[in-house]
Amino acid sequence: MPKRKLWIPHVHVMIFGLLLLTAAASFVVPAGSYERDANQRILPDTYAPVEDTQADSRPRGWHLFFAVFTAPLEGVKAASSVIAFILFIGGAFKVIERTGAFDAAIVGTVSRLGHRKWLIIPLTMFLFSIGGAIFGMGEEIIPFVLLLVPLVHALGYPPILAVAIPLVGSQVGFAGAMINPFTVGIAQGIAELPPLSGWPYRTVIWVLVTLLGIAYVTSKVRSVAVADGGDSATDEQSSESALPDGPMQGRHLTVLSLLAAGILVILWGVHRFEWYVIEIGAIFVMVGIAAGIVGRLPANDIAESFVDGARDLIGAAMVIGAARGIVVLAQDLQILDSILHGVAGSLAGMPAALALNLMFLFQTCLNFLIPSGSGQAALTMPIMAPLAELLGLTRQMAVLAFQLGDGFSNLIVPTSAVLMGSLEAGKISYEEWFSFAWKLQLWLMAFAVVALCGAVAIGYGP
């Protein structure tokens, strides 16, 4: 009897369901808000229900129905910088691809690896994990998915690996980060903790979750090989037949050098000037145009390639905008602050370890609505940091619960721009990805519980 396939709704079906759920929640969750400072950070102990006259201004009836359908478009407007980044990145990489530099590099890589092609997984995942841990690599991995698709195909691996290597690698690094300025840095600043404090314990966590991620992806690849019959000779033949033609030429090497130089400039700009998607996207556009010129592509071919690359990622742009619309709708209905206030109150009086793990669970669930690490830190840490002290915990523990809750769930939340953009770039459905990653999510959740209990046991601080 054939095994029943797990049914996962299409991502747009899930997003629309979440929009309806958000709208329905406004009939149960009272309107309320916290006061905020000049940086839009919540001021603790300032929560107040919205007055009836103001609460009545929330959309109701026909207006609420209409708001559900305008929310995705408002989300596109709110996420315009990320959407522009993805489309322009897709265009730039298509130009580089048309030069033949990627194909030539694949031929060289496969021929050098020989029977050691398995090294691709741990080495590249380790590098992506470092990127996630040090500068919060997120949307930046999407170009690498485009780069890895032909390499994974040439090596004879399943296509999903082109997404798994950068996504799992970067996100376990992101979750276990010791110095990520966009999550740990912001959260510690809000919690009034010394910068980079608590890094030794977080470094241990980073090493362990990175090893866990590498082991999981490697084991899944091996299980696919076993399911396919485990015929190594056949794998080698299919890998060779998948290789593109053409040796590495001087112009190919120059194109790849331009790409490497662009990535180094991006790393410097992120560290030195806090560049984000607009600046990063501009560098990739420069690299794409320069690569087209060096690769001897006519001007019209460069332009057409750019448009083709952007067209390939239109689906990712739509998903990102629609998902952001959920947050826009929740803000318009004034229920986010009320949810946060209710959760904070319910944790009072609980045992320390249990309360800390429930804080982690709350941050995980909140990531469906607010998949931005810095945004989630700004929203929750002003409440969770002082609450931790009232519960007998340290503020450092609250930062850790936020960090793990925000990071691990990025691998499965359909509202994550990183996840959905990567899946679209790799032409992998959400259903296929969920089937691949759900066990890893359980392992990471179990690890987080152990890590948080360990933090309580050692009095992790300050």
Oligomeric state as shown: single chain
Helix content: over 70%
Q: Determine the mean pLDDT.
A: 82
Distance between the termini: 57 Å
Q: What proportion strand?
A: under 5%
Structural class estimated from helices and strands: mainly alpha
Shape: globular
The topology string of helices and strands comes to HEEHHHHHHHHHHHHHHHHHHHH
Poorly predicted sequence stretches spanning 5 or more consecutive residues: 229-243
Helical element count?
21
Largest sheet: 2 strands, antiparallel
Overall strand count: 2
Condensed summary:
The chain is mostly helical and 462 residues long. It has helices spanning 11-25, 52-55, 62-78, 80-98, 101-113, 120-135, 142-155, 161-175, 181-190, 199-227, 232-242, 250-273, 277-294, 299-312, 314-332, 336-347, 352-369, 373-390, 395-408, 417-426, 430-458, and strands at residues 32-33, 48-49. Mean pLDDT is 82; it is low at 229-243.
Description:
This protein has 462 residues and is mainly alpha-helical. The protein has a domain of 319 residues. Helix content is 73%, strand content 1%. The protein contains 21 helices and two strands. The chain has a two-stranded antiparallel sheet. The N and C termini lie far apart (57 Å). The relative contact order is 0.16.
